[in-house]
Amino acid sequence: MSSISGAPATPSGRTGGIQVIARAGEILRLLGVNDRGLTLRHVAEATGLPRSTVHRIVIALADEELVSWDPVRGKAEIGPGLVGLALGRGHRLRDTVRPHLEALSRRVDETVDLVVLRGDSVVFVDQVVARQLLVVSAMGAVLPAHATACGKALLSALPRDEVAHLLPEKLLPCTANTITDRAELLRQLEVIKVSRLAYDHQEQAEGLSAVAALVRNAWGEVASITIPAPSLRFAGREGALSAALLETCDELDRVLAGR
Q1: Which of 74, 87, 146, 214 is the most exposed place for a label (fewest CB within 10 A)?
Q2: CA-to-CA distance for 71 and 121, rounded, in angstroms?
Q3: What pLDDT shows up at residue 81?
């Protein structure tokens, strides 16, 4: 039996091209509910697809940044390309936030980032680079949540048991200042819930500090705005940067809630 276009139909009644899309969708949905990634074998077993087919689709999705493929660990995860698509849903969070990021960057004369949580990592989805030179994480960069101000802010929005589930058993150090004790990190998250401010004092990179806070839209989507700066400059401006950040987040919360 042939399709209307004349392309041969698969046993399921779908043409080859449509079937590939369906299989890609199935793989993406599977990866979306597994925060720490899956091996090709696990994906093949869960979907019933041949491992060679899974590998081909994963590599194609990775080329489009819809999947992150780590050949060293042999694991696939949801990619940064899907973050922008997710943020474009509903209220188009990123588009709404962008002018406020630009205004905040001008106000403090520092780089400002918009970040979301993906499993136990954070993904940078938008960025306004300031005139002052700073080596910053590029858009799409993925960093460990426990070692960043933005990651700690995002983790503080989750229930304690969910945080414990997301975090790896061993928190790997990025620098000598990284919090690697899970209990200590959980205690810090409780403080962040009250203060609304999360800090990174050379925990992710030597010589770099940051402050971060959360914004939410009416659909419950959460992102973090963070201001990184060289630690020497940050130390003298921590209070001013924190106050400017909270004012921006308060204004954004009102805008995103439709008030």
Answers
A1: 74
A2: 18
A3: 66
Dist CA 213 CA 241 (whole Å) = 11
Q: What is the pLDDT of residue 209?
A: 94
Residue that has been written with the tokens 């696990």 in this structure: 42
- The pLDDT mean for the chain works out to 82
Please compute the mean of the pLDDT values over residues 80-96 and round it to a whole number.
58
Fold match between 16-78 and 83-256? Answer: no
Choosing among 1.10.10.10, 3.40.50.10420, 3.30.420.10, 2.50.20.10, the CATH entry for 16-78 is 1.10.10.10
Residue 12 has pLDDT above 60, yes or no: no
Q: Which two tokens stand for residue 83?
A: 């973050």
Q: What residues does each domain of the chain span?
A: 16-78, 83-256
What percent of the chain has a predicted confidence (pLDDT) above 70?
Answer: 80
Residue range 83-256 in CATH 3.40.50.2000 = no
